[in-house]
Write a structure and sequence with these properties.
It is a single chain. It is built from four helices and no strands. With 115 residues, it is mainly alpha-helical.
């Protein structure tokens, strides 16, 4: 039972990483700008825009190709934790991070779902 849950978790994480890599490749021109908006140094945005989707894709493949290996799982945890820290730091500086592919909203006050 535990191995079935672990395999399912790996598959879900692999799908998320594959989707992240695909969206970055499809929208490769805006990825450096999105990284810059997250506070990444300008000099690092171009190399990271190439490296990050490659790492995400490699981890997605490794998660399902080596189901008993611990390194793809831990590498994925490190990647997700690093991204989380970048987003938390961005929000902590009072900046709003926009997800890739999200539509721009017109300027105005924030609204809750109930209003």
């Amino acid at each position: 039972m535990a191995s079935a849950i672990a395999l399912a978790a790996r598959a879900v994480l692999a799908a998320a990483l594959a989707w992240a890599a695909i969206t970055k490749v499809r929208d490769r021109r805006s990825v450096p700008d999105q990284m810059r908006a997250l506070g990444v140094a300008r000099a690092l945005t171009r190399p990271l825009a190439v490296l990050l989707p490659a790492v995400e894709a490699a981890l997605a493949v490794a998660l399902v190709s080596f189901p008993s290996s611990w390194w793809p799982a831990w590498a994925s945890v490190v990647l997700v934790a690093a991204f989380t820290l970048v987003v938390v730091a961005t929000v902590g500086r009072g900046r709003r991070a926009r997800a890739s592919g999200s539509r721009r909203r017109p300027p105005g006050p924030a609204r809750s779902c109930g209003t």
